[in-house]
Amino acid sequence: ILSWLNEASNRQPLHQDNEISKERKNCLKRIFPNKEVFRAVQVEYAKFSGCLESFSDFDSMSDRGKIDPKHWWLLYGSSTPLLQKLALKLLGQPFSSSCAERNWSHYSFVHSIKRNKMTSQRAEDLVFVHTNLRI
Fold it and tell me: Cα 124 vs. chain centroid, distance in angstroms?
């Protein structure tokens, strides 16, 4: 039924893994602090992971592993608008290391040999400000 979660025979499905479920819940709580919205997202995730309601459609299930995930969410995620919006945000992020490298470049500019006595929190705050000023 959920072959996309059971690709390897020794792999536990994500919705049955206690640690992953706990961390997913913690993450979603931070993203959706409102209790009612959080519950709605939990219900939407249950529909997605259990292939329930609109996700039980043959096309939806067969396309999960065949088309680009962002396209899949655009095609089949409309019944779960909160989860769809989150998925599209996550899938829309750049997947190269250039952003991280740019961040480290800003950090080396802010925290140099001449300015090595500042605390790490202060340096992080300055990098945050420096990066956001350029956006």
Answer: 23
Q: Which two tokens stand for residue 59?
A: 């096309």
Cα 64 off chain centre by: 17
Rounded to the nearest 10 degrees, the angle between the axes of helix 69-76 and helix 81-91 is: 160
pLDDT in tens, 35-94: 999 999 999 999 998 889 999 989 998 898 889 999 999 999 999 999 999 999 988 887
Residue 117, phi then psi, degrees to nearest 5: -95, -5
DSSP 74-87: HHH-TTSHHHHHHH
Residue 55: CB partners within 8 Å, gap ≥ 6?
47, 48, 61, 76, 79
How is residue 10 annotated by DSSP? Answer: T
Domain boundary assignment for the chain = 3-92, 97-133
| Cβ(82)–Cβ(32) below 8 Å | yes
Calpha distance 116→123 (Å, rounded): 9
